Amino acid sequence: MLFLATGILLGKQFHKIKQKQKVVYRAFKQMRYATNNETHFLGNAPTPFRLINLLPGEVQGIVVQVKQVNIRHVTPYNPSLIQTDSGYALFFRYDVMSSKSKVTPFFPSIGVVHLNDKFEQNDQEFKRVDLQTDYAEDPRIIEVGDQLYLFYNDLDQNFGGRFMSLANLNKETYEVNYITALDMNLQQTEKNWSPFEYTDEHQTAHLFLEYRIHPRKLLQLPNPQTNDFLNITLPRNASFLPLAWPLKWGEIRGGTPAKKIGNEYLGFFHSCFTEENGLVWFTMGAYTFEANPPFRLTGISKHPILFRGIFDTPVSHTAPIDKRVIYPGGFIFEKEKELVHVACGENDCGIKIVTMDLKKLKESLFKLDN
């Protein structure tokens, strides 16, 4: 009975949200398109005031290519990416419509598909990763030593909210070896923890987590089979750096697993802000941090990384119409060409691989003094 009552209540709430979205959509269609300088590069999306006068990454030399990724028989989004012997493995979220869901009219799931070196699906169909839940969202895939871990968030069906989990996967079949629920009990909904690998002077690999990028909070997970963290202590001046980004483009949230490139780590994050008309915009930035503990931030984007055609994936399937989203979830470093290929979800119903020039990207960052 409790589940039935909860389902009816959530159904009514979902209906109200949809009605609100229709109002927002009418306002969206009536907006004038900004044409200042290069702002028309946002494709069919009216440019919000906070993004006016920002140049696309192509003009700055940062973005060198953008490729839409299509997966057969599914509407994929919020991807993460690792390299394989034959190309890439792309992990992604997709939604299956169902009247049996107690929360929304669909079940979110995580799938995996093989891509060739051109980021195109090969002859194999995608497969669902069996995480023993019908509510897995937003994968981050990472290799630590010889182990493969999938991080995602799951629904707490007893108390509401969401919590983080990791699954240890077979590196060949992507079958699940074990699952560990991760919880700090700091807030009811936990999302967007960003894992990274640290290799010490003895060449031993360790699993670390960026619980928050800023204010900075880091954790180490010595044994991935247990929910037992070590806190990484940072000086206060390194945790509470005065950054301009959150004031203009919203709270800095986790994105891709960071990778060590040269003498520091590189990662990509997302943030969001809401316009007066109710439209929500998710943007992407890059950051760097020290190669060794305590992993203090060393650089951050001065403004969102944009590109021509950003936000132009047509809103469809389960995507909300009152959001425009770019959501980085993983990247590959191509050392020979000094390129990074960032897998991004777009508008909660599409995937793009945004290829960037590493040198130009790092030159564009604001350097932080610790």
Descriptive account of the structure:
The chain has 370 residues and is mainly β. 13% of the residues lie in helices and 41% in strands. The strands form five sheets. Strands 14, 15, 16, 17, 18 and 22 form a six-stranded mixed β-sheet that branches. Strand 7 (147-155) and strand 8 (162-169) form a beta hairpin. The termini are far apart.
Name the poorly predicted regions.
1-10, 23-37
Number of extended strands = 22
Percentage of residues in DSSP E strands? 35-45%
Q: What is the string of SSEs from the N terminus onward? A: HHEEEEEEEEEEEEEHHEEEEEEEEHE
H/I helix tally = 5
CATH architecture call of the largest domain = 5 Propeller
Write a compact overview of the structure shown.
The chain has helices at residues 2-30, 57-60, 236-239, 245-249, 358-363, and strands spanning 63-69, 77-84, 87-97, 106-115, 127-128, 137-144, 147-155, 162-169, 176-182, 194-199, 205-212, 217-220, 230-232, 259-261, 264-274, 280-290, 297-301, 323-324, 326-334, 339-346, 350-357, 365-367.
